[in-house]
Design goal:
With 475 residues, the protein is an alpha/beta fold. The protein has 15 helices and 16 strands. The strands form 3 sheets. An 8-stranded mixed beta sheet has the order 3-4-2-1-7-9-10-8, sandwiched between helices. Strand 5 and strand 6 form a beta hairpin. The structure holds aspartic acid.
């Protein structure tokens, strides 16, 4: 059975982290038989290698001829120190040192070209930004070989074929699957662990692209689909997806199982979880995607499954987005007038503000929506301009904002068809003096969102969280 595992920047961020990652890889190999590894660029604290590379390129484009040279020195220091710690006196040391040096020299060459041209194209940015992964996989593979574990570093430019939308490319799965089969299967058959760069791919012509910042999770899922893996694991530093932000709720715990839609709702409403796009290749091919903790590898973490596999009749998680305002347009002259909502949201869209939640009372006397607090004044000004005539005629009485507020979202696919959950939520909030300003529930019944005064956020989240224990049968 093939297991695809993705390790983020901190898991390869130092010699010690690489040692622990190598241990995990070997343990999983013993359990699974075949393991494919995807790795991010080194994420040393406080700097991430990807950030350094991009900063070097951007400063060169702005005409700064010294920062990228300092960046190159920093990159040398980070990588060489790790090589020295891991591979001192190993036959691997010389080759991998030369490899890394080749990339850093190329980084300098490209930045010099950017400096001279005074121009940085998305294509050049991808070529530069992806080098962090190209270096980290070479180092990790060399270390694995050094400890006697056959491994080979592979650039995903050889595997993941994408369109040419630089900085945010989309994989072309048929071509990708063919390349992955041809290149990765033979290695697995020889018991060699492929250590593959996350984040990058290449167009059909072989030009390097990237899948967007944080794209290594996506790489893991793409390779999982291409290999028809039994599972894809994303290693992080927490026990999977938590039922609430542990900074707000002490009793937050890991959720054993979530559906794709539940995770998407959580991501939309502010939780630090996987991007929905990242999960799609696995979910649409029925490959369980598991989020696990490198510091607690025996913990099963959270498994993400297709929506049809939703179980459990209760609340799974509660999350909050803060620093918002609730903008309200109200007036009796709006009743039965078509097009008010379209014009309102057209005006908001022209200010480039994304609306997070909308609620309209059935009397049609008011429409309200949540927007980032910082953008509120601009949004109100745009609405006043769009409805200038209605305001003069007093068909619309006022456009105003309640601020600051938070959106608190309660997620759980099993809430569908379980009566009484909304009642329990609002009773708990009422009993604890939380002032609920607006409510929205999607027809999927996968989430209920409410808007509360900002100062009530922590109380609302923790009291709703208490209900998780009483409404869920598992996880
Ligand atoms: N290294 C890339 C980034 O920092 C991709 C990743 O880590 O997922 O965005």
């Amino acid at each position: 059975m093939t297991l695809v595992m993705k390790f983020g920047g901190t898991s390869v961020g130092s010699a010690q982290a690489m040692r622990e990652t190598a241990d995990l890889i070997q343990n999983c190999l013993a359990d699974w038989g075949q393991v494919v590894v995807v790795a991010s660029a080194m994420g040393t604290k406080p700097v991430k290698v990807t950030d350094l590379l991009l900063q070097g390129a951007n400063t060169a484009a702005a005409g700064d001829g010294t920062t990228y040279l300092q960046t190159a020195a920093d990159l040398r220091q980070i990588h060489h120190q790790t090589i020295n710690d891991l591979l001192a006196d190993s036959p691997e040391q010389e080759a991998v040192t030369a490899d890394i040096e080749r990339f850093i020299e190329r980084f300098e060459d490209l930045c010099r070209a950017v400096l001279v041209l005074g121009e940085l194209s998305p294509r050049a940015l991808d070529a530069i930004g992806g080098m962090g992964e190209q270096m980290s996989v070479r180092l990790l593979a060399a270390y694995l070989r050094h400890i006697g574990q056959p491994a080979e570093a592979i650039d995903a430019t050889e595997l993941i074929v994408t369109d040419d939308v630089f900085l945010s490319a989309t994989p072309l799965m048929a071509a990708t699957t063919e390349k992955v089969e041809g290149r990765i299967r033979p290695l697995l058959a020889q018991n060699i662990i492929p250590i593959i760069t996350g984040f990058i791919g290449a167009t059909a012509d072989g030009v390097t692209t990237t899948l967007g910042r944080g794209g290594s999770d996506f790489s893991g899922a793409i390779l999982g689909q291409a290999l028809a893996a039994a599972e894809v694991w994303i290693w992080t530093d927490v026990d999977g997806v938590m039922s609430a932000d542990p900074r707000l709720v002490e009793t937050a715990r890991s959720i054993s199982r979530l559906t794709y839609r539940e995770v998407s709702e959580l991501a939309y409403y502010g939780a630090r979880v996987l991007h929905p796009k990242t999960m799609r290749p696995c979910i649409s091919h029925n490959i369980p995607l598991r989020i696990k903790n490198t510091f607690n590898p025996d913990h099963p973490g959270t498994v993400i499954v297709p929506d049809e596999q939703a179980v459990n009749g209760g609340i799974k998680a509660v999350t909050a987005i803060e620093n918002l305002s609730l903008v309200t347009i109200e007036g009796k002259g709006m009743i039965g007038v078509p097009g008010i909502a379209a014009r309102a949201f057209g005006a908001v869209a022209r200010t480039n503000v994304s609306v997070l939640l909308i609620s309209q009372a059935s009397s049609e006397q008011s429409i309200c929506f949540a927007a980032p607090e910082a953008a509120t004044d601009g949004v109100i000004a745009a609405l006043e301009e769009a409805f200038a005539e209605e305001l003069t005629r007093q068909d619309i009485d006022s456009i105003w904002a309640w601020r600051p507020v938070s959106i608190v979202t309660i997620v759980g696919a099993g809430m569908r068809g379980t009566p009484g959950i909304a009642g329990r939520i609002f009773t708990a909030l009422g009993e604890n003096q939380v002032n609920v300003v607006a409510i929205a529930q999607g027809s999927s019944e996968c989430s209920i969102s409410l808007v509360a005064d900002a100062e009530d956020t922590a109380v609302a989240v923790s009291h709703i969280h208490n209900l998780i224990v009483t409404t869920s049968k598992s996880g």
